[in-house]
Inverse folding.
């Protein structure tokens, strides 16, 4: 039922239009759209005679838009808090992983490099003693004590030495130390750690060294020691040999081709003899043109017994331009090999060839 909003009396449907209502008292016609609020008939109230809503109109709530904005803002804040929390947790996990990895590295490398004090050589009234070792980022330094009880003023050198099975290609005057007759000296055999990283080692595991002693007054070699070895606490047996394509293997000397690039090629010589050898790389020929340049780094090199010597042949640009060589396709060379560095025992190989293309 519909009631008149003005007088409260019951309305009748307009017979001419069912969507309209008639109030006979007010003489008004009400459209259905005007009657969104329904009224009940008046009733007697002890306090007053008022009309009351059957379904009172809902009061418009203030701040409805603001509340929606606040809710959206709250959701957005919660989202960002969640993202930040997840990021912090992931970062924490990464840091923990890094810490664990660092801990593992520390645990692996926690043990400092150590050597036992030992006599390396004793003879010719001379004593050479390994005292200790210090390891830094760049070098591994072995502290050596030399006692000269002879009547000669001697100079000492580490003439040749290798680390973990690889020759260092050192200067023959390394560890140059003078010890006057009847006197003592402390010195250092310093090994560049780059040779370790180059061949996949983390620490010096073992060193083999050949000492030479010179009579400083005569400026002539007085004697040489046997090849002596000392090991560190990281020693775990002989290192694995470097191998490539073998181009020579005779009389206890093996040469393997390793790699090449536009500048030249790299080889490794392995000394399988029971004694050290000196060798020269000679008659270097590039694409059938012989290079007459003096390759000082390929002359007079020493390979101790059961050691490997890595060397590279790189011709100068001037030579390549002179012979109009744009690309190196073939390298040939021979070896002069001397057992114990004795020129009377020198032998020469045939040309050893490597085709690069």
């Amino acid at each position: 039922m519909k009631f008149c909003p003005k007088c409260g009396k019951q309305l009748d449907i307009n017979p001419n239009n069912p969507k309209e209502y008639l109030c006979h008292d007010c003489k008004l016609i009400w459209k259905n759209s005007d009657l969104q609020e329904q009224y009940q008939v008046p009733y007697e109230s002890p306090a007053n005679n008022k009309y009351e809503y059957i379904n009172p109109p809902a009061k418009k709530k203030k701040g409805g838009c603001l509340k929606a904005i606040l809710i959206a803002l709250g959701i957005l804040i919660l989202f960002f808090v969640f993202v930040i929390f997840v990021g912090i947790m992931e970062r924490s996990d990464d840091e923990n992983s890094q810490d664990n990895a660092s801990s593992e590295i520390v645990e692996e490398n926690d043990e400092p490099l150590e050597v036992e004090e030992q006599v390396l050589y004793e003879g010719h009234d001379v004593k050479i003693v390994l005292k200790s070792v210090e390891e830094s980022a760049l070098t591994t330094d072995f502290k050596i004590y030399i006692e000269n009880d002879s009547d000669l003023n001697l100079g000492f050198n580490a003439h040749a030495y290798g680390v973990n099975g690889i020759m260092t290609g050192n200067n023959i005057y390394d560890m140059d130390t003078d010890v006057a007759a009847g006197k003592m000296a402390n010195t250092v055999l310093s090994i560049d750690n780059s040779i370790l990283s180059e061949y996949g080692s983390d620490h010096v595991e073992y060193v083999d060294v050949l000492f030479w002693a010179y009579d400083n007054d005569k400026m002539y070699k007085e004697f040489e020691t046997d090849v002596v070895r000392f090991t560190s606490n990281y020693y775990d047996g002989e290192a694995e040999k470097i191998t490539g394509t073998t181009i020579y293997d005779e009389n206890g000397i093996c040469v393997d081709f390793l790699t090449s690039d536009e500048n030249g090629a790299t080889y490794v010589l392995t000394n399988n003899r029971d004694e050290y050898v000196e060798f020269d790389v000679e008659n270097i020929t590039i694409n059938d043109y012989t290079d007459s340049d003096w390759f000082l780094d390929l002359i007079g090199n020493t390979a101790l017994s059961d050691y490997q010597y890595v060397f590279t042949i790189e011709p100068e640009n001037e030579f390549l331009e002179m012979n109009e060589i744009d690309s190196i396709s073939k390298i040939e060379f021979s070896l002069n090999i001397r057992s114990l560095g004795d020129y009377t025992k020198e032998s020469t190989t045939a040309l050893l060839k490597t085709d690069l293309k």
